[in-house]
Amino acid sequence: MSVLQITKELENLGNAGKENRQRVANIILNNSALFEPLTQVVFKVDHSVSIKAAWVLEWFCTHHHLHWMLPHLDFFTAHLKNLHFDSAIRPCAKICEHLANAYYSKTDNEFKRTLTESHIQSIVAVSFDWLITPQKIAVRAYSMNTLYLFGLEKKWIHPELKHLIQSKIIHESKGTKARGKHILNLIEKHQNSRL
After folding, report:
1. In which region does residue 13 sit, left (phi positive, over 0), alpha (psi from -120 to 50) or beta (all else)?
2. Dihedrals φ, ψ of 20, to 5°?
3. pLDDT in tens, 107-116
4. CA 29, CA 94: separation in Å to the nearest integer?
């Protein structure tokens, strides 16, 4: 019943305006049992309602409770590779960036204990895929940040990311070029700090 309920709310969402996303987020805040069905609808990738579900999930994770994702990390990370609507990929790429930021936060938190090697591998793989395939600027920016962060521990990521930025991304739009240069600077600072 809850999948049907959240699907009905999403179908009535309207556009991606913040007031619309907040309205559905409020429904979930008042009934936390709807959060899991929301994550499930995001990955009904052959239905356009999945786009609206991704908008609301990203809004919820950004403005309310990212930690509500913790019990759903297995499902979320395992299905990222199945996304194909541009408008669903962008919010999910942002959630991946939030997860990486939480994992590398200076303060202790549940993400450091719950995000597994398998979750990280799935996020890293899909982030590289999103950099290699034609994607919007925001998806590329979120993916570069996510990969930079996970590359702080996984030594193979920074050289691969650096190569991809220098050979492909830096020759694209002004936005991706600027973000690429920023990430290259961060990689260089990180390398120099280890000397």
Report:
1. alpha
2. -70, -45
3. 999 999 999 9
4. 20
